[in-house]
Give the backbone structure.
Amino acid sequence: MTLQAILLVLIIIGGAALLSWPLGRYMTRVMDPDGGTGAMTGVFRGIAGSLGREEQDWKRYVFAMLAFNIVMFTVVYLIQATQQWLPLNPDGMGAVRPDLMFNTAASFTTNTNLQHYSGESTYSYLTQLGGLMWLQFVSAATGLAALVAMARGLAGRSLGNFWLDVQRASFLVLLPVALVFAAALVLGGVPMTFGGSVVATTLEGVQQTIARGPVAAFVTIKQLGTNGGGFFGPNSTHPLENPSFWTNMIQMVAIIIVPMACVWMFGRIIGRMRHAVVIFAVMLVFVLIKTTGAVVFETTPTQAFAGLPIAQDVGNLEGKELRFGATGGTLWAVLATATSNGSVGAMHDSLNPLTGMMPMVGMWLNESFGGVGVGMINMFLYIVVAVFVAGMMIGRTPEYLGWRVESREVKLALFALLAHGVFILGGTAIFAATPWGAATLNNIGPHGFSEILYEFTSATANNGSGFEGLGDNTVPWNIATGLVMLFARFIPIILPLAIVGFMSSKRRAAESAGTLSVEGGVFATMLAVTVIVVGALTFFPAATLGPIAEHVMFMN
Amino acid sequence: MLQSLLASLRITAATMAICVAGYSAAVWAFAQTVTPFTANGSILMDPARNPIGSRQIAQGFSQPGYFWSRPSAVDYNAAGAAGSNRSPTSEDLKARAAETVAAYGATPDNPLSADLAAASGAGLDPHISEEGALYQVPRVAEARKLDPVKLTELVNQQARPPGAFLSNGRIVNVLDLNRALDQLEDTQKQVVAGQ
């Protein structure tokens, strides 16, 4: 790694980590106001109606969350279905196929933002802003609400009220932060216009149609809410979505800052900041390992150019933008997949084989900060398993924060973690063995397998990035990934809330000298090992067939 | 059940009004006031006010008298951008690179700068590396009957490090460079005419 690369990594990740501390404090204050009476709580109760007054148990909380998410899905499906008759459509976008509408509505409702379309040639400005950008706010707010509820439960309190939490997250967290970042991106040159596309006559006299749009508003919340869905097809590699080195840096900070702050907010609500520091440190170590791996692997020049008279001294440039510098796109690939963001700053399909495996590892683990709210919730599942295993090893009833972890809780946690593997590996197996997947590839051999593996990984992790060569706008892909996204979103939200509900219905034990501490290096190691064993080893055989096989076969 | 539906719909209305309409309007008003040029896509106009392209978007150049942009998987279609999405180990990529090498007439003694052979992420990268621009100086100079030293100066003048001390190397905006080239030739013609 060059000095510049190291500096860039340190500034982005270190800067985001520093900023996440005050943001976490602010988020705690507005998401979990003392005694449930924040300044705006009265207003939010008014909007929610009588349901805004109840204290919800985990079942009521989940029911409210699902009800709102069903409405989210339905509204956006309807907007897509009628966009050709609605206003704000200067480029005359037409009707969209039902299977694509289903996939897109599922994708943005679940905070995934897998995109089987190109925004500039499929959706009107109204669909993009009123449908997709709206979901980028409220799906992230759903995740944040679920995390706050889980933390309250672990603190021994009622879970709170979803109808209030989702409004707090939308109006008091995401909106103000988005305004700040949007202003920065506008100053960095990101467009914000409703003017429709421009037809230019180039210097050589050719007609060039240039798609534009209200990009700045969209891109900001796409990053902050770990959504990742781009305004244009090639996402943040597009010069109008990410015009410079500096907008690239701002967007990378925006990708990771809210998930980082979520860990601090969790620590504050449960009243255990030292525990939060341990969790943060474990997540950070995973991110740094993946970053180092990706940046180093990507310094290998483009293999296909070997033997041709091409001077290659800056690594693999296929699919990369020069204005982000040598490491901008690669660092981005790690950050956007450690979180469940899934935007891209370089084409992942064209990364070197082992570099391309780093984003996959990020999504397999899906907890190195992870999605807004849900990343910390995923980590909670690993914590439950780690605590249980440790408890068995030292021969004590496993406890977490004084709550007894028994077989029912561990079964639910393992079910949620294993579902992740089943969706990824099962889906990949079916599509690799049938024309559903095999007929849609852009590359042959192990790289083609990687395209399928990546797509199911991305859908399951609610990430949304892709090996975009895959011709995935087909009925089988749209329906399969649409269903996977929905199940893989709600299983790991509902089950953790259930676990907390069951645990907190028991009597809380006082912590003694014999209790496994969750605040030290021993616990950190235990947690990291659990993540690696449960998370990574499940996927090692698949990785061997894809990126590792490609590396061994071609990269010599 | 009905109550939950109504609560959902009321929150939908509130978030649509504030997080979509209010937020978009605020960002739009800020952008159009503070940075109107980039807010509208950095569209450049000729003297007759006809658009000639966006400063941020690559356009295709194939005449020898212009500096050429990086390869584009979508032929510089700015209404349907995409990358090649080829694996770096792919045979198709090798074949494409061989065509590019032939177009530039690169040889082992005078190898092509890698960015000129590699397609960008969106196929619309407006920049090439300084080395990539210098590589093209002899061709452009010959086509335009200009002094290569003068062209080299022009390239050096326009090259910028993309991220100050955080990046290696310098890059050049191809459209800016080619417009400057046209102007340079115009001035020279005027000078010749004046003599």
Summary: Strands of chain A lie at 198-201, 207-210, 310-311, 399-400, 403-404.
